Amino acid sequence: MLKRDIVLLFSQGVMELSWLIAGASFIMTSAVHRPFPLFDGAVVFLLAVLLTRITRERGLRVIWVLGLQALGFLLVTSRVVYSSYGSHFFSYLNPEWILYFLNGLESHYDWLGIVILVVFAFVFWLRGVALSRKTTDYTLVCSRFDLGLSVLLALFLVKFLLLVKGGIQLKTPTTEGMIYPFFIFGLMAMGFARNSGTPLKGFISGYRGIGLFLSFAGVILIFGAGLVLFFMPFLQAGAEFGYAMLKSGAEPLGRVLVCILRFLFAGAKMRSEPPAASFQGDGDGPAPSAEGASQGGWLEEILGWVLLVFGVIVLLFLLGLGLWYLVAWLFSRTPGEDRKSPGEGGLSGWFRRLRGIFISLGGRLAGMFKGCRDGLQFFHFLMKWGGRSGVPRLPNETPSEYGRRLKNRFPPLGQEISFIVDAFNLEAYREDPADDVRMKILRQARKRLLH
Predict the structure, then answer these.
(1) Contact (Cβ atoms closer than 8 angstroms) between residue 18 and residue 181
(2) What pLDDT band is residue 43 in, cutting at 50, 70 and 90?
(3) What is the end-to-end Cα distance of the chain in Å, rounded?
(4) Are residues 120 and 31 in contact, defined by beta-carbon separation less than 8 angstroms?
């Protein structure tokens, strides 16, 4: 089963790397005319898988896991940038290549290439982290295969459109060569995931079921592809006609939409002021007062300030709440198989263990020199003796039940065990402390148990 999981993980890794490298090479070649560093891209992917595997289910805090992931990502991303834009006169460990790299960035194409490299390094890292989490789920493997197949088909369609419509021929041999390992290892991964954790099945003689399924799927695929190719000119004409109708129908609504948006977001500032009325004549009509306009102005200003203060308060509350949950999540622990108690690890944990050892040794030495002074201590000694003898006391077990179980396990010592249990019951429940005679009998019983 372990070998099958290793083969499944390897198959999925090659499948993921195939379409990732194909996409990165195609975009780098078409955008900045530089090759993508294939080896360094694979290192980014593999390091993400290894780091996630190592830190998973260790009980580490989230902030430590994120710190390790960020450090690893920065290291491999710098290596990717060095392989593409660094000078080969300086080694990667020599920091002078950074100065050479910064001085060599002169055009916008160089900055575009850096952005593309960093983005694809981040995508490689995310896919590596996703791969290391669930590797045996058949549905997840199929979804990853579908994603890679969609990316490859999109790349070939873009290349075909550039060649047909624009007359641009892109030479991307890496992209074309990645399709073969993608299909080989992708189908292998789906096969291993399909049979993972299940026994081998006995098929019907002649593979009748599989033959019927493949025949039906082939007929449907060929028939559907033929229909699509046959109706492609009509579909293109219908799409162009629908686009023209939509554009012509939505054009008159554009001005109305712009006016509505201006009214909603700009308010009264975007409204056109009405022309001032000229009062000519005998002056019989009353002159317009400015009080009405001034009242509307200060009312809008007050409402604006109220809304602004309310929005700031809500924004601060949301920011504080988000910061609280972020800090709590960062300092929480990841799930682990062996969850340790707080303070168990580190230097304080070692001091705590050392202190516990000294306290235990001191208690044992005191017990050896002082001995047991009452029935409670004798019963405590009996529980320790039973635990060392392979018969520990159960959580819900009474002293009498524990004594009977010890006597069944050690019949020659039944009388001594009964003495200690009876003394405990008398002292604990009847409040009858042991006298000198009973203490002498208990010491003899303890001595017999020790020897």
Answers:
(1) yes
(2) confident
(3) 51
(4) no
Q: Where are the domains of the chain?
A: 2-198, 234-268, 368-450
Cα–Cα distance, 292 to 297 (Å, whole number): 9
d(CA 216, CA 68): 50
Of 427, 421, 381, 423, nearest in space to 402 by CA: 421
Indicate the pTM of the whole model: 0.47
> Taking the CB of residue 398, how many other CB atoms lie within 10 A of it?
12
Beta strands in 244-305 (DSSP E): none
- The kind and range of the H/E element at 286 are none
The predicted structure's pLDDT at residue 226? 44
Per-residue pLDDT reduced to its tens digit, 343-397: 444 455 566 666 666 666 665 555 554 556 677 888 888 888 888 888 888 888 8
- Measured CA to CA in angstroms, residue 77 lies from 84, 109, 116, 402 at distances of 11, 19, 11, 65
* Strand (E) or helix (H) holding 429: none
Q: Which amino acid, one-letter code, is at 431?
A: E
For the CA atoms of 332, 337, 342, 343, what is the dihedral angle to 10 degrees?
A: -120
Cα three-residue angle 183-218-155, rounded to 5 degrees = 40
Nearest-5° Cα angle at 42, 37 to 44: 95
The token pair at 101 is 């790299």
